[in-house]
Amino acid sequence: MLELKISHCVAEAVSQLYAIKMEAKNITLQKTRKEFEGDFTVAVFPFVKASRKAPETTASEIGNFIKTNLDEVEDFNVIKGFLNLQISKTYWINFINSNNIDNFGFKEIKDTNPVLVEYSSPNTNKPLHLGHIRNNLLGWSVAEILKANGKQVVKVNLVNDRGIHICKSMLAWQKWGNGETPETSGLKGDHLAGKYYVLFDKYYRAEITEMIANGIEKEVAEKQSSLIKEAQDMLRKWEAKDKATIDLWEKMNGWVYKGFDETYKRLGVDFDKIYYESNTYLLGKRIVDKGLTDNILIKKEDNSVWADLTADGLDEKLLLRGDGTSVYMTQDLGTAELRFNDYQASQMIYVVGNEQNYHFDVLKLILKKLGYSWADSIYHLSYGMVELPAGKMKSREGTVVDADDLISEMETTAYEKALELGKIDDFESEEAKQLYYTIAMGALKYFILKVDPQKNMMFNPSESIDFNGHTGPFIQYTHARIKSLLRKADWKVNCDLNENISFLTKEKEIIRIIHEYPSIIMQAGENRSPALIANYAFELAKEYNGFYQEIPVFKEENEDLKNFRLVLSAFTANVLKSAMGLLGIQVPERM
Questions:
Q1: How confident is residue 396, by pLDDT bands cut at 50, 70 and 90?
Q2: Domain for residue 7, yes or no?
Q3: From CA 123, how far away is CA 569, in angstroms rounded?
Q4: Measuring CA to CA, which residue among 295, 284, 281 is closest to residue 235?
Q5: What is the CATH number of the domain that holds 70?
Q6: How far from the centroid of its chain's Cα atoms is residue 194's Cα?
Q7: Residues 376 and 418 placed together within one structural domain of the fold
Q8: CA nearest 258: which of 145, 449, 124, 377?
Q9: pLDDT band (50, 70, 90) for residue 494
Q10: What is the pTM of this model?
Q11: pLDDT over threshold 60, residue 524
């Protein structure tokens, strides 16, 4: 990698010129700003104390050393304390000649211990919603980026298929469902379960309101509600493996899984392994029992079991309720141990919203206290909430932005936009349908993934489908434009470019951006951030469009230069397709 070679050369220059030891990793190398001549810039201020010379003199001395010892650097200039290095045209041409391939920037997978990436983690009492969309897209993309960095990756999903919330849906269907099924209702199974989760809450709230009106305090009413007591009793029956309860649970969960699979297919996400909370919570309870035996955990008078973390600056954490039923933390303890035993993972990444930051701090700490040496391999990829302009979502109140509805809305909007702009005028019906689906998914995925995962975001469907903005469709259209250009040229790739080609500044800027791609993939992997890939793809597409508008390709009479521009265009298309692929976004051949 050129940047690394330059950093090593700078370190060597400082060592020989000023007798100070400097590691290449501590050298700050940046892209030269567009208003200055150069490709890479080194700030020399950290070396001035050792050189005992002015910044300009120090920069000139280091520049001369690099120019003498590094063939890739043909010249340099100094602006105050900044050393701007100019890379030779020969290097750039050789770079294109040797790298215009489909897997450019990807490392070969060599790691034996995989990285596990958990995402989705739905509850079987409701359909996937907008928050799940961000979760799924982020988790899937991070997994693909890690693969591109040479990591062996296992994509896993933990289905929360048991607990009081599941029992609420089951109880409501039992009471008021009248035997309704997905077939008789016309609803997807996950939507049907969600309908009864909302219905439970409706009747539960009505009961609480009535109890309060009769003089019972709210907190007491919430605990003494007949509905909540029935749901808790159903949970106890489930844990006791009561046949009728298990049969109902399996039936309703079966509906939900079928619904989930349809949504996952539409989103284009998949999993290598699916875990179920119903299979892991007992393992978690055994871990808790052992913690009690070893006097690491404590049991209170009501028989509930807790981890006392107050000495570590946290609080006490409930692990088992007094009636012996488990909580989320119990299940997560069991799942973590099971996964490590299954894969001996080098890292276990949990893609979970930032409202669970405390939960994962506690999970790691409890595992450490229980003696699990691999506890530090747990990494919480904490992401911000996503909302629509209408505001926050609440599942139990039925105000959730449903994933299926949003995807359908995006398809409709993409169709209307494509029709308005004449993008599908010469397409057959099925081809047009596939195109606006591709545009819709590109708009949705890009708009969500271009935002740093740690930040909260507002998703605006209408803004996401803009063929001229910072959007997925803009990048998709750029790729299609390049493919149209190459078809028009009836051209086959000839990557044996003439080293003496004299290209323009805009062309060199495209080469520089393409040259950064392997580094961007590495940074995105280190930071677990698809946003770096997304914004890189936009920068490349924007730069190429500027080139396309200003610099002729077919009117160029010099065949070597014409071929160079076609090769550069093809290389750009390859990188755009690769980068968008890491985001799970398809790029059409024409539109």
A1: very low
A2: yes
A3: 46
A4: 281
A5: 3.30.1360.70
A6: 26
A7: no
A8: 124
A9: low
A10: 0.91
A11: yes
CA separation for the pair 269, 71 (Å, rounded): 45
In a domain, 396, yes or no: no
Query: Which residues are CB-neighbours of 72 under 8 A, at least 6 positions away?
Result: 2, 5, 6, 87, 88, 91
Distance between CA atoms of 348 and 151, rounded to whole angstroms? 13
Give me 146's structure tokens.
């890690």
pLDDT tens per residue, range 563-572: 899 999 999 9
Q: At 210, which CATH number?
A: 3.40.50.620
Q: Which helix (H) or strand (E) holds 349?
A: strand 347-353
Query: What is d(CA 292, CA 307) in angstroms, rounded to the nearest whole number?
Result: 9
**Count of domains in the chain?**
3
Residues 298 and 336 in one domain: yes
CATH of the domain at 477: 1.10.730.10
Residues 243 and 159 in one domain: yes
Q: Flag whether 92 is in a domain.
A: no
Specify whether 370 is located in the same domain as 490: no
Identify whether the C-beta of residue 449 lies closer than 8 Å to the C-beta of residue 141: yes
Nearest one of 421, 456, 461 to 445, comparing CA atoms: 461
- Residue 265 corresponds to which tokens in the numbers above? 């297919």
pLDDT at 398 over 50: no
- Rounded CA Rg of the chain: 29
Sign of the C-alpha dihedral computed for residues 329, 317, 169 and 395 taken in this order:
negative
The two structure tokens encoding residue 49 = 């104390």
Q: Read off the pLDDT of residues 399-436 as tens digits, 9 standing for 90 and up.
A: 568 899 999 989 988 888 877 877 667 777 788 888 88
C-alpha neighbours within 13 Å on the C-beta side of residue 40: 24
Asked if residue 96 is part of any domain, the answer here is no
The answer to whether the CB of 437 falls within 8 A of the CB of 517 is no
Angle separating helix axes 530-550 and 429-449, nearest 10 degrees: 120
Least confident of 54-68, 137-151, 164-178, 314-328: 314-328
- Considering the domain architecture, whether residues 378 and 412 belong to the same structural domain is answered as no
Residues 375 and 428 occupy one common structural domain: no
Q: Which domain holds residue 28?
A: 2-87
* CA–CA distance, 396 with 375 (Å, rounded to integer): 34
Rounded to the nearest 10 degrees, how much is the dihedral formed by the CA atoms of 278, 284, 285, 290? Answer: 160
Residues 134 and 79 in one domain: no
Could you give the CA distance from residue 527 to residue 517 in angstroms, rounded to a whole number? Answer: 15
Contacts of residue 40, defined as CB under 8 A and 6 or more positions apart, other chains included, come to 3, 6, 29, 30, 31, 32, 84, 85, 87
Mean pLDDT for the chain overall: 92
> Of the ranges 22-26, 40-44, 394-398, 438-442, which one carries the lowest mean pLDDT score?
394-398
**How far apart, in whole angstroms, are the C-alpha atoms of residue 320 and residue 303?**
8
Return the C-alpha torsion angle 391, 392, 394, 398, nearest 10: 20
Q: Same domain, yes or no, for 372 and 423? A: no
Residue found under tokens 């996952």 = 264
